[in-house]
Design goal:
By secondary structure, the chain is an all-alpha fold. The chain is 77% helix and 0% strand.
Length: 194
């Protein structure tokens, strides 16, 4: 199977076909590009991170343990080679936090979301889109843990910045508005689950 056909098959596959796609992908990688993959992942992990993309695939497939394992490996590689505050390292940290969150390990996710927000705020500034996403993710995690007041505060901050930077009608602004409304309803006792 050619790479272009493989990539086309990755677009919106039915859930039951995901394992077949993964098997074909890794068969291709193992047979066609082992030395190139090894070189890129060990010498230039910021340029090509197999662990990150495999972890995202596992998370979408709801194999959270494997997703966490691969995100952790990728994060450790990036911290070692790029440093803790590099944008690619912070992206890996967010990926790991998202996998913990999806698996219901909220304490671990919360710590990573908080750390990533602090690092992104310092490195990129409070108005950068990645920083705003981190703030929203931290708010969502607080919400999932039942800390609605903190979630509301974080969502208000994110919404205000997104309205100022992106405008009121931008999809990210609307998502922040929805997250805030959901947290406010939960605090009021309406629809606590969501």
């Amino acid at each position: 199977m050619g790479v272009s056909l493989l990539i086309i098959s990755l677009r919106n596959p039915p859930q039951e076909d995901l394992w077949r796609i993964e098997e074909r992908l890794w068969s291709f990688v193992k047979l066609r590009a082992p030395s190139w993959i090894n070189k890129m992942t060990t010498e230039q992990p910021g340029a090509f991170n197999v662990d990150y993309h495999l972890a995202r695939f596992h998370r979408v497939s709801r194999r959270y343990g494997q997703a966490i394992h691969h995100h952790y490996q990728g994060l450790m590689d990036r911290r070692r080679t790029l440093g803790s505050d590099h944008p690619d390292t912070l992206r890996s940290s967010t990926g790991l936090a998202n996998s913990f969150y999806a698996a219901g390990h909220y304490d671990e996710a919360l710590a990573l979301f908080r750390d990533t927000l602090e690092r992104r705020s310092r490195a990129l500034g409070p108005e950068h889109p990645d920083t705003l996403r981190s703030r929203g993710s931290l708010g969502n995690c607080h919400h999932a843990m039942g800390d609605y007041e903190t979630a509301i505060q974080l969502h208000r901050e994110t919404l205000a910045l997104r309205e100022q930077i992106l405008g009121e009608d931008h999809p990210s602004t609307q998502a922040s508005r929805n997250n805030l409304a959901r947290a406010e309803r939960a605090l009021a006792g309406e629809g606590v689950g969501g």
